[in-house]
Amino acid sequence: MKMNCIAGLRGATMCAAAMAGAMVAASAVPASADDVADFYRDKVLTIWSGLTPGGSYTAYAQVLKDYMGKYIPGNPTIIVGSRTGGSGRVLANWMYNVGPRDGSMFGLIHERMGLEPHVYPKGTKFDGREMTWIGSMAKQKSVCFTWKDSKVKTFEQVQMTETIVGASSTTSTGAVMPRMLNAMAGTKFRIISGYDPAEVFLAMERGELDGLCGYGWSSLKIARPDFIKEKKVNLLLQFSDRSHKELDGKVPVMMDYITNPRDRQMLKIVFGTQEMGRPFAGPPEMPKARVAALRKAFMQALEDPKFLKDAERRRLEIDPISGEEVEALVKELYDTPVELARLTAGYRKPAKVGESKRKITWKTVSVSLREKKGRYVYFTVGGEDHRAKLHGKRTDVTIAGKKEKTAALKAGLQCDVTYPGHHGLAKAIDCK
Predict the structure, then answer these.
(1) Cα(318)–Cα(337) distance, rounded to whole angstroms?
(2) Residue-range domains of the chain with CATH
(3) Which residues pair with 368 in a beta bridge?
(4) Which end of the chain is more exposed for a tag (fewer CB within 10 A), N or C?
(5) Residue 79: what pLDDT?
């Protein structure tokens, strides 16, 4: 460290003081780095997922855990945990009010969840502006598409022809986006809710539905790459104000069809959250040095050539933004007038016309369970492989006449499975 000192006693004293101060300042950075390393060394860092364990969101957490640890001082072991519910609302509430704030965990939530207290505060017990944003692994662009055999093949045709689309619930993106289009762009979508996501694809193939309107482009590439490669779907629209690079010039964007100024303002809220399409956040008041280390390691991991190859192998789109950028975006979106934000949330309620609940035709098959894996049981029906989804509250399980939890199901049990068909949610499983 080189310094120019002023001659004389007073100058020497000033110089000594300055040098001492500089030495303290110079030692502050490595000391901070050492403190971070000491904290994370031999520690387990948990990345919580607030969404479905087998879904596309959690897939991002799974690949991140394999690479981020080596860039964090102290090189902690990283595991992925699950705290699901409300598209990450349960996890956000827990992190904000209960979870540790020492940097030993952070979590993955839905893109819109950080803004949820401003848009639709029911059930939220956190403030997105106070969360610690680590970063986002990809921007999210949702698309609207119909099956190749549908008579509707372009967005302009939806404005003239009734088009039946499926959704998991009345508040899901698959219901909200076509509802907004009906109101803002004069489309003629008819929305049928009550489908499990995998069932929507099968219903399209059966001709039961025309398509799905509000499904992530990156999620589609993961879940059904054959739809794109073999051109099994007609891509009608991107829910965005700017095109995804892979769809530019091929698929129109929604904002091009919206002229009402108030509607355009509301869509800016919706599309703004898509910029942080796969966001990772921690609780408030995490130690600043550890936050800085996590943010840096997050971005370094996403630039790792091995990580990028692994993500490509898993068909995960990587288009990251930093924790600082996510934090600034969240604060900017919170500046939207509350009245306008709440109007946006109004589109989560079903319209009075043009919507209905799916009518399920149940069937019961007597089978031997071949496998129990995660939230599914697998079996054979008529020589074909089938699976039924399990739900802790909505699937009634009995074994030898005794009521059991879904966890009690295992391979080899002889059971009567009541479900709507392959991929469907099981209503009841009665085993001998």
Answers:
(1) 32
(2) 44-139+275-347 (3.40.190.150), 142-265 (3.40.190.10), 363-431 (2.40.50.140)
(3) 414
(4) N
(5) 97
